């Protein structure tokens, strides 16, 4: 064992970090522990993974939706849902706002320029009808629309790199990718499941195979199994009704510090009448926010979730 | 810690509560140092340490009755918290890879490009981060937290012999990732 310890010392000593916890953090933790131990309902510790993942999804839904300054502000805020995420945005010639986020450090100016160049190239490919359709992301519409569909498209850049971007499609892409025919099949409930896996917060991930009229097959990833459009609208209608009755579980909650007027956002998980669960990132009703704005308290279950504070955008 | 702060942590429902209060600062420092070397990021370590103690507060009635037991319980929970963090990171990379454009993390880019001795700390940290969580836990507990094999076994939930085996594999992986440069001269 001495040899092992010696090996470890030789290899790991350069990585040693010094310094202790910040005293103000200690005080904050003490205070929070008091709240938790004093809570008759107890405290449910939630991880942020699902929140991060779903925020990424919802953030992508906004690509193509935002043509207004308010929309852009909203996107910039939503794209930084947790403390350690950073975002850079680029406005396309058609007025849509594209964004890329990461979690390690803020984008440097030269990195932002590189992202902008990449987005510019993708935009040109998009307008020319290029790219390969990989998947569909269907979420409740935000502006009166029952369902909003985001198309995930893979692009090959001039340097040979492949990248995928979620958003809307150009008219030429819709034509080249036979999207109208695919969506017709999808909305009619067609599509064979060729792969599936459980995904966080109760959403399943499915790969569906569609057979087009010319005999070609297209495999697309979705987050809902084969179903008609009416069935999916029913799901989202049911989640809206459950939300109105405050019948949901809160997986995470976050206040957007830079724009508190947007309220508290989080991942709400609903249990449908048939037992299925659906997770959606959306605004959390004010009725379940504690008076001091620090906790979400779900009346029916007594569930208490701490509201995290989201960071301001990186630029 | 003042008496007032002790009261602020724990209202004193039973012995475990008072114990956690009296051991709070010492245990907090131990857990923080452990998590700091699991993630090599002071701010993230603070966050994960806080989460560990929130879990302790939520499970206050199940804490062991002695100081050593409380510390072991906290390190066990911290290990779970750190493992969950690494799993989430991996999931997030997979997810963003499917539905967005992503860039490599700092650690990954450092690992790929560092070539001078001045960058060795970052390179070693990247190598530790690249270990599977169960190996990473054993390595950090053994070297940075200076725990015995029995203690590590209790924390990670396996036999001491399995800890030794994991440590051996982890060292082999680290050696492979770091090459000769970092296994000598330090």
Features:
heterodimer, A: alpha+beta, 2 domains, 8 helices, B: 186 residues, Rna Polymerase Sigma Factor, Chain: A, Arc Repressor Mutant, subunit A, 0% strand, globular, disordered N terminus
Describe the structure in your own words.
The complex is a heterodimer of chains A (315) and B (186). Chain A is an alpha+beta fold and 315 residues long. Chain A folds into two domains: 49-226, no CATH class; 235-310, no CATH class. Chain A has eight helices and 13 strands. Chain A has helices at residues 2-12, 23-37, 49-61, 69-78, 109-127, 171-176, 179-187, 229-244; strands at 86-91, 97-102, 132-140, 147-156, 162-167, 192-198, 204-211, 217-222, 249-256, 264-271, 277-283, 295-297, 304-310. Chain A has a five-stranded mixed sheet with strand order 11-10-9-13-12, with helices on both faces. In chain A, strands 3-4-5 form a three-stranded antiparallel sheet. A three-stranded antiparallel sheet of chain A has the order 6-7-8, covered by helices on one side. Chain A is globular. In chain B, 75% of the residues lie in helices and 0% in strands. Chain B contains nine helices and no strands. Chain B is globular and about 45 Å long. Residues 1-15, 94-115 and 180-186 of chain B have low confidence and may be disordered. Chains A and B meet through helix 1, helix 2, helix 3, strand 2 and helix 5 of A and helix 1, helix 2, helix 3, helix 4 and helix 6 of B.
In short:
Chain A is of the alpha+beta class and about 325 residues long. Chain A is about 30% helix and about 30% strand. Chain A contains eight helices and 13 strands.
Mean pLDDT of chain A: 72
End-to-end Cα distance of chain A: 51 Å
CATH topology of the largest domain in chain B: Rna Polymerase Sigma Factor, Chain: A
Q: Structural class from helices and strands of chain A? A: alpha+beta
Cα-based radius of gyration of chain B, to the nearest Å: 18 Å
User: What is the CATH architecture term of the largest domain in chain B?
Assistant: Orthogonal Bundle
What is the N-to-C succession of helices and strands of chain A?
HHHHEEHEEEHHEEEHEEEEE
Q: Please, how many helices of chain A? A: 8
What is the highest CATH level, the class of the largest domain in chain B?
Mainly Alpha
Main β sheet profile of chain B: none
